[in-house]
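Retro notes, structure queue

What went well: the backlog is down to a handful. What didn't: a couple of records were mislabeled last round, so from now on we paste the full input next to the output in the thread. Example, using Secreted protein from Microbacterium oxydans:
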Amino acid sequence: MRNSVRLVSLAAAAALSITLAACSAPSADPTPSATASTTPTAPPSPTPSSTPSFDAADTSTWLITDQGIGRAELGSESIVDALSPTFALTDHCEDLEYYETAEGAQASFGIISHPGESGVSGITIRVPGDVPLSGPVAASPLTKSGIGLGSTLDELTTAEPDGAFDATPGTSGYVVGTSPRWMVFEVSEAEPFVRGITVTDTLPATGFCS
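Corresponding output:
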């Protein structure tokens, strides 16, 4: 009988020990769930502005490069066909050919062809000297850097920082490019607006009659 009581007591003590151990054991912290990494979304690239399609009747779509202006190119035998029907040959002066806008055309400048031994050596667009300038000429062709007739001297030197003024006495040309072809901008501090732009294979570029 005593043995039975002792066994019951031992069993009860063992059960109590297990219960206490279970209550005192620290509970494990829950493992935090991994946060999904997010890839930053790159901002969309700006869409480059499109270059206007060439239109022979719209001189503002003509591009000025060291090869020519619009369809008129250096080295050509003549630029008559390249300028037609917007411009027509109207005058000659010291071998220069002067082109003015044909009837109904809206351009506010003239074009001059400079002769050379191997074809046209220079092509100029120019606002006549008696016409005041105070800003961009809407119908002007533009260079790739956005310079046209009526652009300011500051705009020109900012867009074409590698250019330099022609040191030839009596000239007011800002020269851009390297041999054998250049772009010469007729502009000065006295008149800080581009009055003329010449594409040429000869420096100094031949002058004008007016």
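Agreed that this is the format going forward. Reviewer comment attached to the example: Residues 1-26, 45-49 have pLDDT under 50 and may be disordered.
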